[in-house]
UniProtKB/TrEMBL annotation, chain B:
The name this protein goes by in its record: Carbohydrate ABC transporter permease
Annotated SUPFAM superfamilies: MetI-like
Gene3D superfamilies according to UniProt: MetI-like (1.10.3720.10)
Signal sequence residues: none
Database matches in Pfam families: BPD_transp_1
Organism lineage string: Bacteria, Bacillati, Bacillota, Bacilli, Bacillales
Cross-referenced PROSITE patterns: ABC_TM1
Keyword NAD: no
Top-rank taxon, per record: Bacteria
Primary localization: membrane
């Protein structure tokens, strides 16, 4: 105890901060500075999360007091094969998974190729980079208006320039192709920048050593480049997967969920059930949201463990 | 030397092809926004307008009550600017609190905030609507402005940056008799301008482009921001490419202009955030 006291004293003498007389009692300063954010965080994030999980166990309709119904909503959407909500969950979640599986590889490989090409620094690479990033700045609804016209059967350029003319948005598998194309066009800029930074960080010594050993360009890419940027690859896989699980705008505005519900994603059903025309079935909607949320959380937990193992 | 030239050439050709793919939709959208509806129905696809008209823009901006694009644009501007200011104030103050003030449980509290980022926002959607409704904010700007300021990531970003600023600067100000507010406004804020610029740009663009949330809290057509507004507009101009493209282009102008002048920040900040997280 004595030692501690004397230590404190020494610090007091040396540190200029403590020259100021210390205020007694409860310090209000922290509340003043972090209070506003804390309040917003509690009201618009923390409470809604708990409330959201709770109402998935109720028969809430957004208006009346929610009545606790136990696991009924989950039973209904997960196991009751006669229920329309069962069909919605399975179609919606299935299509959401399909979207993730179709888009994530493209959203990794294409920006990686672009970053690799930009890394060589050919003429105009600054301009190229700026252009690939540009669509990230645009809203989903503006982008979908442009692309639904691009895919238009009667006056769209895509059907005009390619001789075979499928009804892109109205038949499968073309509707999926269209969704993947617009998603890649819209959203690869961020990953590209991350890969560019990662490639800049790879030491040139490795490449020189590999050249001396007679390694070719492709060998170098797979044996040096990829392992060196492994962390960034993993990071982008996770954030891209999480982002794509939240697919909504593309399916809503480009394919309108069609043809015949083959691209209706879960978020569309959640929105419909809770906020659509007719009586709100917020309880069921919440149960669906919780299931989608669990899928997303599973991805972030995997990321957490993978990253921790690295350290 | 020869090898280098080949790989440069291959890269250049590849990038050029990809750039054309990236530019084409925007170029065609731009040209199509000057097309006359009758021409489109008569001639089908064309790259250039047969007759150049600006009536599409005029209709949308000046005399169209079912799709009040000018009003939407102003709504979006008010919402995005206000949210940006709110976020800057709230976030910089919070970051100051988490780095410069000592209080019990500070780091525990911050870890809790960070951990909360793992929770998926989709679960919030329905209850958040109820909260906004209870506050009487449905169909008001507040519904689109305030909830976004609760985001933790911005606090994290600014805090990371603030940790790098030496405490000695605060301390010498304190010796001169400055209190926390004076240190925050006179010492800290000027020093964290770079990270605040990044936060401001990202907040503005994400606020401008937000789609799902505003489409839930706005059903009054005159109060709506432009991003959910465009979805309504799409339903009205299904085959009217001229009007549809004009509207889409009007909607992307602000973020496009912002990008032209501040590109550097956008491109830097991506690597900043990934470096921090990855």
């Amino acid at each position: 105890m004595d030692v501690k006291l004397s230590e404190n004293k020494r610090v007091d003498v040396l540190s200029p901060v403590s020259l100021k007389p210390r205020r007694k009692g409860f310090n209000v300063m922290p509340m003043v500075f972090i209070g506003p954010h804390m309040l917003l965080f509690a009201l618009f994030f923390l409470i809604p999360i708990f409330f959201g999980v709770y109402i998935s166990f109720t028969n809430w309709d957004l208006i009346n007091t929610p009545e606790f119904v136990g696991l009924q909503n989950y039973k209904e959407i997960l196991f009751n094969k006669e229920s329309t909500f069962y069909a919605q969950l399975h179609t919606g979640l299935g299509n959401t998974f399909k979207f993730v599986v179709f888009t994530v590889p493209a959203c990794i490989i294409i920006p990686l190729m672009l970053a690799a090409a930009l890394h060589v620094k050919p003429k105009g690479s600054k301009l190229f980079q700026a252009i690939f990033y540009l669509p990230v700045l645009f809203s989903i609804s503006a982008v979908m208006i442009i692309w639904s016209m691009m895919f238009n059967v009667s006056f769209g350029p895509i059907n005009h320039y390619f001789s075979s003319a499928p009804n892109w948005l109205g038949t499968q598998p073309y509707a999926w192709v269209a969704l993947v194309v617009v998603t890649v066009w819209w959203g690869i800029g961020g990953n590209m920048i991350i890969y560019q930074a990662a490639l800049n960080g790879v030491s040139k010594d490795y490449y020189e050593a590999a050249s001396l050993d007679g390694a070719g360009r492709i060998q170098k890419f797979f044996h040096i480049t990829l392992p060196s940027i492994k962390n960034q690859l993993l990071f982008t896989v996770v954030i891209t997967t999480i982002a794509q699980f939240n697919i909504y705008g593309q399916a809503l505005m480009l394919t309108k969920g069609g043809p015949s519900s083959s691209t209706t994603v879960l978020l569309m059903y959640i929105q419909q059930n809770a906020f659509g025309s007719g009586q709100s079935i917020a309880g069921i909607g919440s149960a669906m949201a919780v299931i989608l949320g669990l899928c997303i959380m599973a991805v972030s937990i995997i990321q957490f463990f993978l990253l921790r193992e690295k350290k | 030397m020869k090898k280098l030239n080949i790989s440069t050439l291959i890269s250049f050709v590849f990038l050029l092809c990809m750039t054309l793919i990236w530019i084409f939709p925007l170029a065609w959208a731009f040209l199509s926004s000057f097309k006359d509806e009758v021409d489109i129905q008569t001639f089908g696809f064309s790259m250039l307008p047969v007759h150049w008209v600006i009536t599409n823009y005029q209709d949308l901006l000046f005399d169209n009550s079912s799709t009040p694009v000018a009003k939407w644009f102003m709504n979006s501007m008010i919402i995005s600017v206000t949210q940006t200011v709110l976020v800057l104030v709230v976030v910089s103050m919070a970051a100051y609190g988490y780095t410069r003030l000592r209080f019990k449980g500070r780091d525990w509290l911050f870890s809790f905030l960070l951990a909360s980022m793992m929770f998926p926002a989709v679960v919030n959607l329905i209850p958040l609507y109820k909260i906004i409704d209870t506050l009487g904010w449905v169909n008001t700007y507040w519904a689109a402005i305030v909830p976004g300021a609760a985001a933790v990531f911005n606090v994290f970003l600014v805090r990371q940056f603030m940790i790098g600023i030496p405490l000695e600067l605060d301390e010498s100000a304190r010796i001169d008799g400055a209190n926390d507010f004076q240190i925050y406004t006179k010492v800290t804020l000027p020093l964290i301008k770079p990270v605040l610029t990044v936060v401001a740009l990202f907040t503005f663009t994400s606020s401008w482009n937000d789609f799902l949330w505003p489409s839930i809290v706005f059903n009054d057509i005159d109060r709506m921001p432009i991003t959910p507004g465009l979805q309504l507009l799409q339903g009205m101009y299904v085959t009217d490419i001229g009007h549809a493209m004009s509207a889409a282009l009007i909607a992307i102008v602000p973020t496009f202009i912002l990008y032209l002048f501040t590109q550097r920040y956008f491109l830097q900040s991506m690597s900043l955030t990934s470096g921090v997280k990855g």
